[in-house]
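Lecture 7, part B: from sequences to assemblies.

Below are the input chains for today's worked example.
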Amino acid sequence: MTILFYIGAVLAVISTVAAVTRLRIFHAVLWLNASFLSVSLVFYSLGAPFAAMLEIMTYAGAVMVLFTFAIMLVGPGPDADLQERQWQPGPSWIGPSATGILLLTGFIFAIFKGEAGKTAGASVGPVAVGASLFSTYMLGVELASLLLLAALIGAFYIGRRDDAPNEKGDRQ
Amino acid sequence: MTNIPMNAALVCASLLFVTGLAGVLARRNIIVVLLSIEIMLNAAGLAFIAAGSRWARPDGQIMFLFILAAAAAEGAVGLALVLRQNHSAKTIDIDAAGSMKG
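Predicted structure of the full complex, as structure tokens:
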């Protein structure tokens, strides 16, 4: 199980770095899918099989389909590669990388300063998660459903076509 | 099930988070920026799962579920905004979002 964790973690970091740095959008999405699958391996090795399944279903499944549809609708265009290269001069990475490395140093310092210990080594299955979710966290579930409804209506409103005729029949 | 050091899991989560952050700051393609935000949310979820696994409690997985819901909502609205911008400004450069209104 430990070796499974390390394989998943290394794969996740490599594929995430690849996803962020690829020039073509669709390559980035495919690398991100690999990253989500490796993270689900990490979840499974940490003893969270339910979360691992949800990671595959929601992130690697639903969210990736959403991104694929968006790319299909937007379309890369004929000169997408050229455009990406113009948008990606090397120096633009210096600031973000420096910020990231500083933040990472802080994180690692904080992590290794305390006594974090080891994981319990016990698997927490879907039964325990479900029982706690629908008793202690009932309000949270209701709020999450409200949030998803608001997102649905918001996405529908924002994504509507401008040139569609309105109720009076005249164009906006 | 064996014991995995918490430090390793937390370092993995912070590496993923920092990668996502650098992506948000450096990229100008709006779809890749949204993708990087998903990476950051996923890294936060990994830290929650690791903490839940540390004490063998379901609460970490429940927090991950809520993060999942927030990420799905954010992705849907964000991609609708991308389509909107592509329709009006004919570009997916995030700088063009500054001229968006209504």
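Note for the exam: The helical segments of chain A are 2-21, 25-45, 49-74, 80-87, 94-113, 126-133, 138-158. Keep this in mind when comparing with the next example.
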